[in-house]
Predict the structure.
Amino acid sequence: MIFYTSSVPKLRRFGAVAAVAAVVTGLGFAPVAHAAPSGATLPLGDAGLAESRSSQTLTRGVTLTRIVRGTDPAPADQINTTTRGPWVVNVLTIDPTATRGHLAATYGPDLAKVEKTTDLVRSAGALAGVNASFFTFTASAQYPGDPVGLGVFGGKLLSEPTGDPAEANLVVDARSNKVLVGQLRWTGTVQNTRTKVTLPLDFINHPPVVPAGCDGLAQPTQCTLPGDVVRFTPEFAEATPSGAGVEVVLDARGCVVRTSTTRGTTLSQGQTSLQATGRDSVAMLAVAKGCVKQTDALLDETGKKLRLHAGSFGVNGRYRLLAGGRIAVPAGSDSFFARNPRTIAGTTADGKIVLATIDGRMTTSVGTTMDETAAVAAALGLFDAINLDGGGSTAMSVEGSLVNQPSGGAERAVGDALVFVDSRFTGR
């Protein structure tokens, strides 16, 4: 699976997600011990390479810096090996103590569609932004924007963490611009309020898997193979996924509105649905009678439940770059760890938020390995940082214009974006 292309389906959650990658640490804001000195050059390529920097203030508390290291274009056959670069890095720095604006995450018309980062920034009325989460992309022609991991928008958990040890998450409080970085866990259940019969919830807003051999049965309840239980919200798409299985539509109180032995329906505002496949179809019919209680918890690495509110936003990445000021990238040798375009998000020791893009796969900017990406994050003074979706997805938009150069020659449509809006967050 090559995560930087975003071309993988959502990974299954492994039980209670007890295993946590050793490369990530707890969420927190402890002081940094290894911040890079102000004005340090990027630790890329040969020592003594020419490096230029230009900065501009976009608005109060927000600056955009462009760094170019190396001067001569790389030979096309040496992009992955050259020590001469060049590298082009764009860095957006937000100072919460000085800005009047806020950071948020946004997606397009619905969660399952894709939009260009520039369009997401514009539609959000934002000043600037970068692409964010890994998303289904080509693995699903119908739902390409489906996040592969955490997705929190305006306090709503619309996609759960995968449980993959490689997943790293960034959660922002738009009211204070405080950021948490780490690996989150999630648990969910569905319980009948009268009988107390309980069923585990596997996913949120992700098409369930129909076990092979079950989709041709006359009745979905005849399937004896394991399936999925998924909650859908109106934000997912114009209609919920169709196919074999069972679907129960609930009103805002959690009471059953209608039940169907096939999947696929349109949800009204305030409604949710529960889809089940495989042998979970039988269990769903038993649980979803009368009213049900849906319980889920988003947990940090200490097991503490995160309290979401209207100003809560969260996205997913792959691998922690820095944890507590120290390099946290594991060893790896596949194409994901090789030189590619990269998007970085993180915070400095004093709470500044940094969003950065590194152009790659071009003779004018060769990109960075995962190790080089972590080194760049450290050189930018970050304390905690994650690797967001990259490759052809890497994009930074400022004031309605793309400021980096996508590797594919044109901007790719993506699942969501982190955006800076130049006004105070007014939601509750």
Remarks:
- Residues 188-296 form one domain.
- Residues 1-38 have pLDDT under 50 and may be disordered.
- The chain has two domains: 3-184+301-421, 188-296.
- Residues 370-379 form the longest helix (10 residues).
